Amino acid sequence: MTVPPAPEPVPVQEPVPFAMPVTVPVPPAPPEPLIEARFDADYLANPKPAYPLISRRLGEQGVVHLRVHVGTDGLPLKVEVKRSSGFERLDRCAQETVTRWRFVPAKRGSNAVASWVVVPIVFSLT
Predict the structure, then answer these.
(1) Is residue 100 part of a domain?
(2) Least crowded by CB within 10 Å, which of 38, 43, 84, 117?
(3) Residue 103 falls inside a structural domain
(4) 113 strand-pairing partners
């Protein structure tokens, strides 16, 4: 009589421990685009600076670039000369005028946000 071969041992599997669900972080949505502040809307009625009389007599002219920090209410928080016209009188006149201007504030989505904008002021005798 022949003895049947012994069955091969079946490996015992360890029980799988209960795994907690893994939370995969969702990347944040990209920020909404920024719509820059504006100073050139007609309804703002921002006056041009008065040309200083002495500057006219001396033939001073040029372009002043002002860097303006505009608040959420559209009012300038800070006005500084970014690039001079080359004449302090013209720079000062432009700066004093723009401090009284109103702006359309920058927006991110539907929310007004403070931002910087560059305002060129041209003084030309022609």
Answers:
(1) yes
(2) 43
(3) yes
(4) 106
What average pLDDT does the structure give for the chain? 90
Query: How many distinct structural domains can be found in the chain?
Result: 1
Q: Which domain holds residue 42?
A: 34-123
Q: Is residue 104 one of the residues assigned to a domain?
A: yes
| Residues 32-46 pLDDT 10s | 888 899 988 778 889
| More confidently predicted of 30 and 73 | 73
- Has residue 103 got a pLDDT over 90? yes
63 neighbors 121 (Cβ within 8 angstroms): yes
SS3 of 53, please? helix
Q: What count of other Cβ atoms lies within 10 Å of the Cβ of residue 126?
A: 3
Q: Taking 90 as the threshold, does the pLDDT of residue 57 lie above it?
A: yes
Contact call for residues 125 and 61 (beta carbons, < 8 A): yes
Distances (CA, A) of 70 to 84, 91, 115: 20, 19, 5
